[in-house]
Amino acid sequence: MPAWNEADIDEERVVRLLFEIDKKDYDPDGKAFVRPSSRAIILKNGKIAVIYSQKHRYYKIPGGGIEPGENKIDAMIREVKEEVGLTVIPESVAEFGYVHRIQKGKHEPVFIQDNFYYLCDVTEGLVPPQFTENEKKEEFVPCFVDLDEAIRVNEEYVKENSYDSMIERELRVMKMLADIQET
Fold it and tell me: Which superfamily, per CATH, for 14-182?
């Protein structure tokens, strides 16, 4: 089931499906809340840019929701600036793929999210991150970390929090990146 009509988001072509997470814990006839997002894979000096939750002890790849009137790449560039204080070099952006996630929602019977991942480079300068109130509650800290360390930490988190498909998604994408780096 498609999450939305592509023309409703922007005129970019659809990127390749990396994998799908379907928790099958929802009423398939229920009203759906659809929230597409864009995420940035920033690799530098053997490390990946991430946001660490000091409260819950997991790593997430920078990115977030696509706002009305915004295209996927512009959303990713905005989110990188807001969450990790880095400036994406627009000419460096290359699609990596997307993850389709569907599960029971918090406020609606069904939550559907397509997460678009892009590889990109950033400039050297930093600006202070601008976290939302929810992100502040998560005690987010932007950082660069070894990919293997991010995978190890997220594996531990997922073992204890199997319901958290967001970190399951991030873990699977990180493992895909690690496999690519090994080849």
Answer: Nucleoside Triphosphate Pyrophosphohydrolase (3.90.79.10)
